[in-house]
Amino acid sequence: MESESTESARPTEPARPTEPAVTTCYRHPKVESHVRCTRCDRYICPDCMREAAVGHQCVECVKEGARSIRQARTAFGGRISTVPVVTYLLIALNVLAYVGEVVRPAIVDRFEMLGAALTGPDGGHYVWQAQYSYDFHPEGVVDGEWYRMLTGAFLHLPPTEGTFGILHIVMNMVSLWNLGRVVEAQLGRIRFVTLYLLSALGGSVLVLVIAPYTPTLGASGAIFGLGAAYYVMARRLGADMSAVNRFMAGLLLWLLVSAGLTSWQGHLGGLLAGGVVTLAYAYAPRDRRALVQAAACAALLALLVITAVGRVSELTSGAA
């Protein structure tokens, strides 16, 4: 009879409780975290948590989600913005330029809009002639100073000169403040600044065509362009036109009344350019709106440049 061998039973040690692994934030490895992002499942610390519809998300997932959401647009394709940054910036630039004029008056002669003139040996300014003696020098756009067509729109009459003096910049900046905030809110920043600059350029081109020998300055051309934009946008949006029509009638009346005191050519050029640009903004087909709007602005810019170059060619050749 075989005997069964039994091993002596060894005492077993009690199982030690396993310590939980320490989890840390994926962006801040030294910070302990026990919350996961509901989107990517990574651990996040309180500094990296962002409230979500369910739970919390990390910073990167929130940014990625924002990119995938379609941004709201205005009826003209611009991004919705509650702060008229461009309007503020334009006013600031005009005011800074005005301060520069007061400190250094020579800025006006150097940067105002001037199509064609002559500088004499005595430093004086003389009426343009295509044929001039060697001791005279051309100045203005005919001498390649094309920048004047935009810089003149940021200058205004010095405090003690002209009919209006300091009221020139005050009236223009008040108008820019009132119109700019409305137009920029509807167009968005990029479209608004494009409208403003093309309107200013349109005013300078008409001055160059009709009154090339007369120095002009002021933001009025660009502001008249904003006025035209305000009218076109109101019609496109189906607004109550009674107040808008009164505004437009007042704008046109000022264009006529001020013709003997200001550059009506700059006002009219800005009005026409602003109207053309805003018509393109307002009535471009929705499915290819951005492309049509950009093409219309580029076409207007090309037309203005060609017109200006042709007029300068006429002046230098003595045709006008």
TrEMBL record:
PANTHER family: PRESENILIN-ASSOCIATED RHOMBOID-LIKE PROTEIN, MITOCHONDRIAL, RHOMBOID PROTEASE. GO terms for molecular function: serine-type endopeptidase activity. This is Rhomboid family intramembrane serine protease. Its main location: membrane. Residues 144-280 form the Peptidase S54 rhomboid domain. It comes from the Bacteria. It is a multi-pass membrane protein. SUPFAM superfamilies: Rhomboid-like. It holds the Pfam family Rhomboid. Keywords: Hydrolase, Membrane, Protease, Transmembrane, Transmembrane helix. The chain crosses the membrane at residues 76-99, 162-180, 192-211, 217-234, 243-261, 267-284, 291-310. GO terms for biological process: proteolysis. It comes from Streptomyces olivochromogenes. One of its GO terms (cellular component) is membrane. Residues 1-21 are annotated as: Disordered. InterPro entries: Peptidase_S54_rhomboid_dom (IPR022764), Rhomboid-like_sf (IPR035952), Rhomboid_protease_S54 (IPR050925). Gene3D superfamilies: Rhomboid-like. It is found in: Membrane. The lineage of its organism: Bacteria, Bacillati, Actinomycetota, Actinomycetes, Kitasatosporales. Belongs to the peptidase S54 family.
